[in-house]
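Protein 1 of 2
SEQ + STRUCT:
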Amino acid sequence: PAFSVILLTTLIGVGQGLFLAVFTAQSYALVDLLVIRDARAFYTQGSLLALLFLGAGLLASFFHLGRPERAWRAIAQWRTSWLSREVIALPAFMGTVFLYGVAHLSGWKPALARLPSGIPVDASVVLGVIGSVLAFALFLCTAMIYACLPFLREWHSPLTVFNYTLLGGASGFTLASALSAHTSPELTPFFVVCAIII
């Protein structure tokens, strides 16, 4: 594929993986499996960094379009085209990551519900769940663009979806390791182990 396609999928995958890493830490902290000393800074900086990678990937996507001024038309074929679905999923995911970061930065976390164990579910948790679903949907859409092309024999495989998901997850958790070393060093071993496992 064109270099811009490689750049696009790599940058967006890192952004997706980083968001998943940040929300995984929040989920573990929610049930007291992790202690995060400066959670607000970690979640906010993680969201911002994920958005920067996603935005850079989106920018890279314009370099392999023949007619960038017609990019908006890509949405019209969402029923049959994985590319159209990707074009819808990416901004939805970016918007959710933005709202997730804003919820943590502003401290706006009204409890919307309680789990049976009594753990409060606030707005950031709901946004994190929605963002996680969108991240996996985006992995699926991006991978299926290539997996469904029979003339690309190396990629015409169901393993392409797993490959995109694992590579994005591993790179995102690796970046989370570096971020946590700066913001919340107590999380670094957790992210390093997760990155190695993924």
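Protein 2 of 2
SEQ + STRUCT:
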Amino acid sequence: MPQRLLNKIAVVTGATGELGPVFVQRFLAEGAKVVVSGRKRPRLDVLVVLEPSRVLVEEGEVTTFSVIDSLSPAPLS
């Protein structure tokens, strides 16, 4: 698969839902680094295992400003 998203960062909110892992896997396959956010830490931890050096977890509900502010992709650089 071409690495069309190499050196890009994707943010997946609701990553612990049914479709979240599908999006995360696709972004990783395309070469992106991925910031994942969701309410269920065990499910987020499963996503980190896919590619630990390219997945950053921010646990929380994106309806709160503190979680939205914490979604900065800077730590993945």
